[in-house]
Amino acid sequence: MNAKTEQLTYRQIADRLGLSVDAARARVRRGGWLKITDNSGTVRVSVPAHALTTPNVQGEQPPEQPEPTAPNSPPTDGVSAELMNTLRLAVTTLQRELDRRAEEAAQDKEELSRLRDDNADLRARLAVAEARLTEREYPTDGVNVGGEQAPDVQVNAQGERLPRAWWRRLFSV
């Protein structure tokens, strides 16, 4: 990683610049910044360091970061306590949703594995059925299947063509 750039996801860019994810995508597109997709499908963007410290193109200032406090320090006023409680509730809710979706993903993986096994079994059964089908001989009802073609014209022993007698068959009832 170059010292003058940072590798960030769209979400991280949006958080750092105080933008929505769509606005961060537009900023990356306008800036022509290098995008790299890793094997898991996550897009990482090489963001120039000056873009994270300078004001936005529209003249907006990046959001101010609150001063860090000790992890267990009590809030200084009632507004901060209310905000902390709201954030805790939001984190708890998001954690439950994350757990629920992780459980759904595990169930989906189990179902996918089961379906792959079923698919493999069905393919094996199909191969056996096709093998039996090619081995089986079917009645031909007098049709020549040996590759010989029957002549269209009948000939006598001397090789002469016999006259057609279609009219005899027509009038012999």
Quick structural gist:
The chain has 173 residues and is mainly α.
Notes on the protein architecture:
5% of the residues are buried. This protein is 51% helix and 8% strand. Strand 2 and strand 3 (43-48) form a beta hairpin. The longest helix has 58 residues, at 78-135. The chain has a three-stranded antiparallel beta sheet with strand order 1-3-2. It starts with a strand and ends with a helix. The mean pLDDT is 77. The chain is elongated, with a radius of gyration of 40 Å. It has five helices and three strands; from the N terminus they run E-H-H-E-E-H-H-H. The protein has 173 residues and is mainly alpha-helical.
Supply the key terms.
173 residues, mainly alpha
- DSSP helix fraction: 40-55%
Question: Helices and strands: which structural class?
Answer: mainly alpha
Compute the number of strand runs. Answer: 3
Give the strand content.
Answer: 5-15%
Number of helical segments with 4 or more residues: 5
| H/E series | EHHEEHHH
Average pLDDT confidence is 77
C-alpha end-to-end distance: 99 Å
User: Widest sheet: strand order?
Assistant: 1-3-2
Low-confidence stretches: none
CA-based gyration radius: 40 Å
Morphology: elongated
Biggest pleated sheet? 3 strands, antiparallel
Layout of helices and strands:
Layout: E1 5-8, H1 10-17, H2 21-31, E2 35-37, E3 43-48, H3 49-53, H4 78-135, H5 166-171
